[in-house]
Amino acid sequence: MSALFNFQSLLLVILLFICTCTYVRAVAPSLVDRNKTGFLGLLFKSARIGERLSPYVGLACIAMAVTMLMQ
């Protein structure tokens, strides 16, 4: 089943995307910061979400991990 049709998988993909963009921006900020608009602007916006809402993103990752382990 595709991640687009399963809500839990879609949330997992979004969380992993946010965490990955935040990590890439921490390691190599020039890759993310030069594309602030357009389709690649999603990388910049996801990195910002991961930086500013990091406690909530972390709690969401923990909650997702617990739900995956309980299945």
TrEMBL record:
Function: Involved in the early part of the secretory pathway.
Protein's cellular compartments: Golgi apparatus membrane
One Pfam family cited in the UniProt record for this chain: DUF1242
Transmembrane segments: 53-70
Superkingdom of the source species: Eukaryota
GO terms under cellular component: Golgi membrane
Family membership: Belongs to the KISH family.
Classification lineage: Eukaryota, Fungi, Dikarya, Basidiomycota, Agaricomycotina
Signal peptide as annotated in the record: 1-26
Keywords from the UniProt entry: Golgi apparatus, Membrane, Signal, Transmembrane, Transmembrane helix
Membrane topology: Single-pass type I membrane protein
Protein name (record): Protein kish
